[in-house]
Amino acid sequence: MGDLLRPLRLDIFPETGFIGPEQATQVTGRHLSDMRGMYQDGRAAEAMTAAGDPLLYQVYNADIPDEPPHILFGTTVVYPGKVGSEYFMTKGHYHAIERTAEVYYCLKGRGMILMETRAGDVAVQHLERGKAVYIPPGWAHRSVNVGSEEFVFFFAYPGGAGHDYEAFEGLGFRNVVVDREGRAVVVANPRFA
């Protein structure tokens, strides 16, 4: 059956989000160019992409089979920064199997979790070190770094849940988080007007 079906212990480093040892971790990075059309200020996004295409976030996954009955877990690191006035964020997604939930536990930094349902319900939760957020089945979720340091959080969800990123490639989420005079403010996405 293989070593991964035996008990597994990994180290999680809260300051960096790194999970080790390396042979038991998969890393995914998303640059600004991977998020074309997701930020409100398209000109600022294209200028930043041309000037160096910043890394917005990385996901460290424990190398566990992505199938039931396993529980997938890892960490996400969202770097500090803004595109225009909008804070760096993750792509955001529904689970492909929408009757699955997820848990986030903040290890470092400050962020907001934007959530919404296909019916149009919205919710926002603030996350900081030592706080957790439960994301119920059927709720899409996006993480936003609203601080000046890395926003690092642990996540766990059922194997086989999958990700539906395509749902947000046109209009995006119903809310966006912008900087207003040094404060992170949640505003309605003007694309839904």
List keywords for this structure.
193 residues, 42% strand, 3-stranded antiparallel β-sheet, mainly beta, Jelly Rolls, 1 helix, 15 strands
A few lines on this structure:
It is built from one helix and 15 strands.
Please, could you describe this protein's structure?
This protein is mainly β. The chain has a single domain, classed as Jelly Rolls. Helices cover 5% and strands 42% of the residues. The chain contains 1 helix and 15 strands, in the order E-E-E-H-E-E-E-E-E-E-E-E-E-E-E-E. The strands form 5 sheets. It has a 6-stranded antiparallel sheet, with no helix packed on it. A 3-stranded antiparallel sheet has the order 10-9-12, with no helix packed on it. A two-stranded antiparallel ribbon has the order 1-2. The chain is globular, with a radius of gyration of 17 Å. It starts with 10 loop residues before the first strand and ends in a 5-residue tail after the last strand. The mean pLDDT is 94.
Helices and strands, with pairings:
Blueprint: E1 11-12, E2 19-20, E3 25-31, H1 42-50, E4 55-62, E5 71-78, E6 82-83, E7 86-87, E8 102-108, E9 110-116, E10 122-128, E11 132-135, E12 140-145, E13 151-158, E14 175-180, E15 183-188
Antiparallel strand pairs: 1-2, 3-4, 4-5, 5-13, 6-7, 8-11, 8-13, 9-10, 9-12, 14-15
Derived structural class: mainly beta
Helix content: under 10%
Tally of individual helices? 1
One letter per element, helices H and strands E, the order comes to EEEHEEEEEEEEEEEE
Number of domains: 1
Average pLDDT score: 94
> How is the biggest beta sheet arranged?
6 strands, antiparallel
**Strands side by side in the biggest sheet:** 3-4-5-13-8-11
CATH topology: Jelly Rolls
| CATH homologous group name | Jelly Rolls
Q: What is the terminal-to-terminal distance? A: 53 Å
**Beta strand %:** 35-45%
Overall radius of gyration: 17 Å
- The CATH class is identified as Mainly Beta
Low-confidence stretches: none
- Which architecture name does CATH use? Sandwich
